[in-house]
Amino acid sequence: MMSKKTSQNIAFWVFRILGLVVVAILFWILGFIIYHGAGVINWKFLTTAPTDGMTGGGIFPAIVGTFCLIVGSMVVAFPLGVMSAIYTTEYAGNGKLVRFIRIMTNNLGSIPSIIFGLFGMALFVNALGFGDSIIAGSFTLGLLVLPLVIRTTEEALKAIPDSFRTGSLALGATKLQTIRRVILPMAFPNITTGLILSIGRVSGETAPILFTVAAYFLPKLPTSIYDQVMALPYHLYVIATSGTDLEATRPIAYGTALVLIIIVLLMNLLASFLRRHFGKKVKTN
Predict the structure, then answer these.
(1) Could you tell me where the beta strands, DSSP code E, fall in the chain?
(2) How far is 66 from 64, CA to CA, in rounded Å?
(3) pTM of the model
(4) Rounded distance between C-alpha atoms, residue 96 and residue 33, angstroms
(5) Is 279 helix (H, G, I), strand (E, B) or coil?
(6) Alpha-carbon torsion 85, 91, 95, 100, what sign?
(7) Distance (Å, rounded) from C-alpha 55 to C-alpha 51?
(8) pLDDT tens track of the chain, all 285 residues?
(9) Cα–Cα distance measured from residue 192 to residue 81, given in angstroms and rounded to the nearest whole number
């Protein structure tokens, strides 16, 4: 019969191998994209508009459009998600209403993204009259990641011990003051986890922006939130699947994919920096 130490060592090595397999797959994907796309990336590729039916030129309008959609969707999703999580965690208790809200939130998070695209087109593009625009795409993407922000914020708030709440209330603070000055500052480093995951989700979505904002070929920058924009995911889809000379556009597709990965990485690094920064402030205080 196998000893406890032997079975523990076997389990340890199984988990280690599985972890290394995951890391190896990640590096293989990144290496494949870098190998095929690094040769395309240069200053002209990053700072000029596409030309010749997107077989030449650069992807600057698509980069700007992607940033607009990321920022716009976070402006929509982050306040709504955080305030909803504060209500369900701090105010609503654990009754039937909260359980119903959480079930609906989980269901909303499992809806395919193309359904959000159709909903965004029906509501924001047509019913509200926004048309194919940045504001319509931002609202659609914001709703798409709203369940993710709510769930991560709820977990961050639940991780704060109740002793901090009771101590603050015992000192004479109101419920709102306790949440604003004690709970939120302590939970914010973990709340940014939802922000990081949301940025990664939003930056790679194609179906929702296809119905609400993305333009096939628009070699100019937006001037208002009611303009259409090019976006890197849709641009990548178009140049990889459309056109008559796919061999000529394939390197551009790999270059676009690499730029998209770099943008997501930079946004995640920024969010991680903010998380560490606010985490240190909480510890110092």
Answers:
(1) 50-51, 56-57
(2) 5
(3) 0.87
(4) 48
(5) helix
(6) negative
(7) 6
(8) 567 778 888 888 889 999 999 999 989 988 998 888 888 888 888 888 887 767 777 889 989 999 999 999 999 999 999 999 998 888 877 778 788 888 888 888 888 899 999 999 999 999 999 989 999 999 999 999 999 999 999 988 988 888 888 888 888 888 888 988 888 888 888 888 788 888 888 888 888 998 999 888 888 888 899 999 999 888 888 887 775 566 667 788 888 889 988 888 887 787 777 777 766 666 666
(9) 12
- Identify the structural domains of the chain with CATH numbers, from first to last: 57-284 (1.10.3720.10)
Please give the structure tokens belonging to residue 236: 């990548």
Which segments of 159-245 does DSSP mark as H helices, in order?
A: 162-170, 175-178, 184-203, 207-212, 232-241
**Of residues 41, 17, 4, 30, the one with CA closest to residue 256:** 41
CA distance 207 to 18: 32
In sequence order, what are the residues at sequence separation of 6 or more whose Cβ sits closer than 8 angstroms to the Cβ of residue 7? none
CA-based nearest residue to 193, from 145, 142, 152: 152
